[in-house]
Design goal:
alpha/beta, globular, five-stranded mixed sheet
């Protein structure tokens, strides 16, 4: 009800004492004040996701801070810089007209000559244009246009029916046409989503959203290498052959230079230059990341074998982990990813595990209480219980 009754609503999703939320908070407050001072019809609200977990799925809020814009009830994800000016510029862009009218052959030709993703609606109906503009708000990297059907038919021969969509691209098949769409949100989203990236996509932050943040996340098949290394051209060609053979709307194939365009991602995943080249398959299950790594040798045949092993359930899941501690005195044992299966899943005892974040205030307050409980259940003589703690980053 609240969303539907606000024309422009910005929602900040955060958690208690999260450091990035604390950093972002003053900028979000500044954006709200600037909007008020300039009499913008914007409403700013804040939601504690930890206290309202049921809304997480609705808002696709899988990380903190998450900012979600609603325009006329349509949800738009914000992934720009964490500054007040960037947020307000984004809101200004998404609340204005989302499509440009092409009324002459010269204007149409100028769009055909442009670079980047361009979507053109061929219609003579105002109500269809309004629906189209609302749907276009959700897409940042596409330029949207609309034109009379007669003009569109002259410029693009493949468009033969009114209300059709033509998507112009600079890669692979350069024109994709959707004839007489229903203009439902799902159909429109699927059309853009399934065609906005090349079969083998470069390493950009937006491409990872198809794997980690989308409502229907894809499986990411990723190859990271040093582009300047010997044999990289052959490796690239073999990876593209793999993508061609197994292309599907359920997969996102990514080819990245780990020293350049993918550095932010590879640093986050703990992939170092000495590990290159490296291939990984990533998928989200119940909001949890599953990773499968292949370290070589690299040929078209071996990459295909790894991919098929994963499809058959034969590939071994990879766990990001600290090294197992050389010394690990009890009664509260430190767990890491590498020791979890053995010490917890394979234990012949019941195991109580505390998962915590080192920066979390509540976790620090709980620490001495947890140790007292562990001592109570393991002293003076051990019971059928093992007690452990595991940093969520380990």
């Amino acid at each position: 009800w609240y969303v539907k009754n606000k024309k422009v609503l910005m929602v900040e999703c955060c958690g208690n004492n999260h450091p990035e939320c604390k950093t972002w908070a003053p900028e979000y407050k500044k954006a709200a004040q600037k909007a008020k001072d300039t009499k913008k019809p914007y409403t700013f609200v804040k939601i504690n996701i930890l206290q309202n977990p049921g809304i997480t799925k609705t808002l696709s809020a899988n990380k903190f801070p998450a900012l979600r814009l609603f325009v006329n009830g349509i949800l738009i994800l914000y992934s720009g810089n964490n500054t007040a000016d960037a947020l307000l510029a984004f809101m200004e862009n998404k609340t204005g007209p989302q499509s440009t009218l092409l009324s002459t052959p010269e204007e149409f030709q100028a769009v055909l000559n442009k670079k980047g993703l361009r979507c053109i609606l061929a219609t003579n109906k105002t109500e269809i244009v309004m629906q189209y503009m609302d749907l276009a708000r959700e897409h940042e990297d596409v330029s949207f246009y609309h034109a009379p059907i007669s003009l569109t038919k002259e410029a693009i021969k493949e468009v033969t029916e009114e209300n059709s969509l033509a998507l112009l691209r600079d890669f692979d098949e350069q024109l994709v046409v959707l004839s007489r769409p229903t203009m439902s949100r799902k159909q429109f989203q699927d059309f853009i989503r399934n065609n906005e990236y090349p079969l083998v996509a470069p390493c950009k932050e937006k491409i990872f959203e198809t794997v980690y943040r989308d409502e229907k996340p894809r499986t990411g098949i990723m190859l990271f290498r040093n582009k300047e290394a010997d044999g990289s051209e052959t490796l690239d060609a073999e990876f593209k052959e793999l993508a061609t053979e197994f292309q599907s709307i359920n997969y996102t194939f990514v080819l990245g230079n780990a020293k350049d365009d993918c550095k932010k991602y590879t640093d986050y995943e703990g992939i170092e230059e000495k590990d290159l080249p490296i291939m990984q398959i990533v998928l989200m299950k119940d909001k949890q990341e599953e990773r499968y790594l292949y370290r070589g040798p690299f040929t078209g045949k071996t990459m295909k074998e790894f991919f098929n092993d994963w499809k058959k359930g034969k590939a071994k899941r990879f766990y990001k982990s600290e090294e197992i501690p050389a010394s690990n005195p009890g009664p509260v044992f430190k767990l890491v990813g590498k020791s979890f299966d053995k010490e917890v899943m394979g234990s012949d005892k019941n195991v109580l595990v505390k998962f915590y974040a080192p920066w979390c205030k509540h976790c620090k307050l709980l620490a001495p209480i947890y140790e007292d409980i562990c001592l109570l259940y393991t002293s003076p003589s051990p019971r059928d219980l093992s007690t452990s703690r595991m940093p969520s980053s380990a």
